[in-house]
Amino acid sequence: xxxxxxxxxxxxxxxxxxxxxxxxxxxxxxxxxxxxxxxxxxxxxxxxxxxxxxxxxxxxxxxxxxxxxxxxxxxxxxxxxxxxxxxxxxxxxxxxxxxxxxxxxxxxxxxxxxxxxxxxxxxxxxxxxxxxxxxxxxxxxxxxxxxxxxxxxxxxxxxxxxxxxxxxxxxxxxxxxxxxxxxxxxxxxxxxxxxxxx
Length: 198
Known about the structure:
This protein has 198 residues and is mainly alpha-helical.
């Protein structure tokens, strides 16, 4: 009798939801493990190395002191280097503001879209995720920029997010970037790369 009850429960919509939730929990466990270092709001280089694009030790060996030092030259230099982006993303996660960088990166990727159909769907996805009021990862932009971007979606083009992207870039450059350069994470990274040379 019990097995027939559990079998019929798994066919019920609530039972299916519970099964899907358990499957999702198992899949999310690996992600939680990888991102666990960020939950402590730490600012150390060890947190940065945990989410480097390559294996941390190999990536740190490839990262020269000169490259890491050049990140302080300008915000655009930092954004042009994959390890710079990874380090800055890790820093922003400690400040709970990584949506700004994720939006900027999504816009950069969006500009490379050639298919008109994909351009339209990607534009709406980016708007709904980052720009719309109460978006899951809403970026901090003013009302006029938000509305101008909304109007641009009526006829999406590779430049429809340029104004919003520019505002977010300026915000990160003036606010988060200077704090990143003063952070323990960046300073530890520089000292680690310098120690490898000596």
